[in-house]
Amino acid sequence: MSLLRVLVCILLPPLAVIDRPIMVFLIVLMLTLLGWIPGIIGAIYFNSQDAAPADGH
User: Which of 11, 28, 30, 56 has a Cα-to-Cα distance from 37 of 20 to 30 A?
Assistant: First the structure.
């Protein structure tokens, strides 16, 4: 995950997952409405899913 993506996760969590499926966007939006910190955690979590190696290591 790039530094720019991390900064967007912190500043505007829903915008950081706009290129993900709509359900991911809605989850992060709801978490952000409940509180900024849960939104940040959700955005970082969903963005880090692509960073995981494909072979499971």
Answer: 56
Q: What is the pLDDT of residues 9-48, one digit of tens each?
A: 999 999 999 999 999 999 999 999 999 999 999 999 999 9
Interior angle at CA 11, CA 8 and CA 15, nearest 5: 50
Flag whether 35 is in a domain.
yes
In a domain, 50, yes or no: no
